[in-house]
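Appendix B. One record, verbatim.
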Amino acid sequence: MKKLLACLLVPLTALALGACKPASTSPDSKPAELNWQQPKLTSNVWKISKEGQPDSYLLGTIHMGQTNQTLSSDALKLLQSTDQLTTEVDALPDSSPETKKMYQKYFKEVMSTEPLSRKLGKTDFRLLQEIYSQNEESRPIAKIADKLHPWAALVFAGSAFPQGYSAETGADMLLTNAAVDINKPRGSLESLDDVTAIFKAQPEETMINFLKASIKTNKEETEDIKKLHQAYSDGRFEELIPLLEETEQRTLKRVDAKYAKAMSDWLKNDLLIRRNQAWLPKIRKQSAKQSTLFAVGIAHLPSEKGLIELLRQEGYRVTPEPKVLIWQ
């Protein structure tokens, strides 16, 4: 699960500790069948062009890196070539009263009056605590885990990367910090409420089953995360989607058969397709005003429902640029 979220969803653990809602998916709805080779991910950088407006860029990212990695000069040059950086959510929220109020509301929403250990069972709950404890960034969550709603526990589990990997060195976070350093304007495509709504919309029983499956596959996913990171780091972007599909199929086998179809639909429709569609108006608006670097999880780029094809359908010319390796 966490490998999928690393390419689909900005980790929320660091956001939560540092500072249009999707519709609920019916278990009986038909999962989206996507052609991940349309187009092939020959690059992580795609130029967005339209007559009468400046060129902008889509940058496919992963939301974690190794703890010692820094932004490459080529990635910095790409950022400097544009007028604004836009990420999925604001990776460095300000400290205004409004922002503090938003995070206070968030922490109230993630807390449950019924112990999570009772819902998961003692064995799975202990394993979940171990998952949180394996990384310094997610370790504080282990202390409050028993008070979390299942959906919130799943969100935080997706941010609990293996030891030696960090959300702080993910492509979006490094670019955000670089944008701050050079006084580059920043924007976002969705809010914290938008992201959490994707998880909250699912029935609790469904989220518990998803969480249990994620716990059961954690050991395999630890190795998968390393493979995913290495492929992205090397610029072998065409290998990423097969790796993600492999993880999805393995996780689905661990889900109760009653929920497997709902999980597959949720991963593709709620975490991917609906978010892409919700982002389009903001991408149109921001790119019309200034040259913008849109840094989003790389799984949002390919398929007929991905951002590349959706923008092409709206009259934009979207073409691959030379690869940009994010880290030094």
